Amino acid sequence: MKKLFLIMSLSLGTVGLYSQNSKIPSSVKNVEAKVDSVLNLMTLEEKVGQMIQYNGSWDLTGPASETGNKQKEDRLKKGLVGSMLNVLSVEATEKAQRLNMENSRIKIPLIFGYDVIHGYKTIFPVPLGETASWDMEAAEESARIAALESVAEGVNWTFSPMIDISRDARWGRIMEGSGEDPYLTSRIAVAKVKGYQGDDLSDPRTIAATAKHFAGYGLAEGGKDYNAVNIGKNELHNVVLPPFKAAADAGVATFMNSFNTIDGIPATGSASLQRDILKGAWDWTGFMVSDWGSIAEMIPHGFATDKVHAAEIAVKAGSDMDMEGGAYEAGLEKLVAEGKVDETLIDDAVRRILRVKFKMGLFEDPYKYNDAELLASVPYEDHKATARDIAKKSIVLLKNENDLLPIKSSVKKIAVIGPLANDKDTPIGNWRAQGEANSAVSVLEGLKNTVDTSTEITYSKGVTLGQGERSFLMPLNINKDDRSGISEAVENAKSAELVIMVLGEDAFQSGEGRSQANIGLAGLQKELLKEIYKVNKNIALVLINGRPMEITWSAENIPAIVEAWQLGSESGNAIADVLRGKYNPSGKLPVSFPRAVGQEPLYYNRKNTGRPSSAEHVTYSHYTDITNGALYPFGFGLSYTDFEYAKPVISSNELKTGEEITLSVKLTNSGDTAGKEVVQLYLRDMVASTTRPIKELKGFELVQLEPGESKEVEFTIDENMLKFYSASEKWEAENGEFEIMVGGNSEDVQSVNFNFSK
Ligand code: NOJ
């Protein structure tokens, strides 16, 4: 299957962009020379072809039935397509590559993109859930595994990681990202890029990654998908851009722009974002793919008159490849011919695309990802074990009154109740790539796998949640009136010593286009929970969901609550590991859980306002009908053991440019179980040229301690940590007083102050 492709004769005499600069490594110089050589051989039509990406949902080998598809196939044969998405399997990708390579004049290999968001076949926790592990090695490892499983099936480019900061639980896509914090998301961005791309993109076991969506998409007004984003430069640079900068610095191969407008300009048509910031100030050399049809969507945005106009705006703004939008196909050649678009812009885009293809080694062997031997060697069983390990680390214990959990060995009768208790599909979540439907281990199965046989486990569904056919594109049909299973569940609960209720969201309740005005337990779930509570109060509530939920009643009444997200293939086993105490939960929330949906957008790193509080009157920043702050704050998560923080010690109260000071704190495991704590470091700039958040995460460390054991945890503070996008529109630190805080979540912190001067 694997064939060596003879590289086309390259006119290596052409001098590339970097070739005069002796500081550039020769491997890079070589790539640049090769890119230019190929570019010199190309007609304008072929160059524009590289900038077009087609969806592959048509029969690539048989006769194409629809006219549109026939046209696509013809263009593929002429070498007028740069990439395809959603073409899967060794055979299908090879067929498409052959159509291109064996028929086209120019013979530039295609790359194959796909949404590999949290695993390819082996499914890991949804990204929001995985981030709750705060474990960068885990985040890197799941990406490495996803990369291997993808390339083994011919897919060599993933549209991941999604690193949009999102502060609104109503936004359905909050599940795809890492939550509300720029620092944590930046760390995840780097881990993911490393995991997907490894050290060398030409290694056939790695996959090209995409930092998306550039930019601001997660701050859609009202949490409504595709909605306008109205933020200024301060928020853009301090909140939205840091993870993208981190991904660019980590060498991510591609970026994807976004559907939203930002301050009135569609991101896809924003030269300031794409040309000035990303490709200018950051000097990033990869290519920008549009989001699906986002170039042509500038027409309904009211920003472009037609596809040709949209193409003109997008190419000038720096969008290099048109994902299934038809705008570049309709417009670019015409625009160059009419002199409206300079061909150097097209050359820049094509150079970027070719650069990635060269780095992937596709010119040496366009069939390198069509390797049946590699596929046969993928250790899927080992991947399952890793998926279980990462899943258990992602679970967050929210409440555990009277140590109801872990389940005591004396408990001999457990009732497992709820629509998600034996659901093998929901844990697979949305954006499931090739994760098989109904393939997850359910909670019921997981418990049966781990509980000794002398314990009786009964199961009642109680109510259904989503009913009928479910899919990525279809609206979800929630059960609002079928109560027929409730009485049996109540009977079951009556005779049990412990009830494990498994509630939450359907797999397709969060994700793209899945914004919700309500974020509580949908359908009849709350009613079921209350009915069970009437007869048995020993309830451990396990939540399976993709977004933060409004669970205030449960938090007030139910003794134990476990946030288990959509944990992927091994979900039930991982949950059982935690419920049984085989794993002591260590996850911490990457996002705030609200007391009511009306608090959204809700985030810990907010501004203080001029009226943060008042004991005497109502004229301060709050809602009169609810306590300020989150129900469960960012960074929060309990353990089966207790951790004690001693008073933090700072090495000096003065920090100067070029120097470092340290903050250290002694952490002790004062309980009787071994456990892991995520020690978090927050910072506040007390007075600055723009207002600054009341605190921002600046560091964290995972610390594993045996009972009675202590560890001194040390953080280094330098000028870099204090930098922000200032009123002078520079990334800089300003002189003055800072508060540095340390603790086990964003609210329970101890602080010390210091001064910084340049
Ligand atoms: C639209 C989504 O916004 C994007 O994230 C995804 O990668 C593309 N569709 C391709 O499926």
TrEMBL record:
Q: Taxonomic lineage per UniProt? A: Bacteria, Pseudomonadati, Bacteroidota, Flavobacteriia, Flavobacteriales
Fetch the InterPro entries from UniProt. Answer: Cellulose_Degrad_GH3, Fn3-like, GH, Glyco_hydro_3_C, Glyco_hydro_3_C_sf, Glyco_hydro_3_N, Glyco_hydro_3_N_sf, Ig-like_fold
Chain's gene name: bglX
**Keyword set, alphabetical order:** Glycosidase, Hydrolase, Signal
Quote one Gene Ontology molecular function term. beta-glucosidase activity
Family recorded in the similarity comment:
Belongs to the glycosyl hydrolase 3 family.
The Fibronectin type III-like domain sits at 677-746
Official protein name in the record: beta-glucosidase
Q: Does the keyword Hydrolase apply?
A: yes
Organism field: Christiangramia sediminicola
Presence of the UniProt keyword Signal in the record: yes
Q: What is its EC number?
A: 3.2.1.21
Q: Which reaction does it catalyse?
A: Hydrolysis of terminal, non-reducing beta-D-glucosyl residues with release of beta-D-glucose
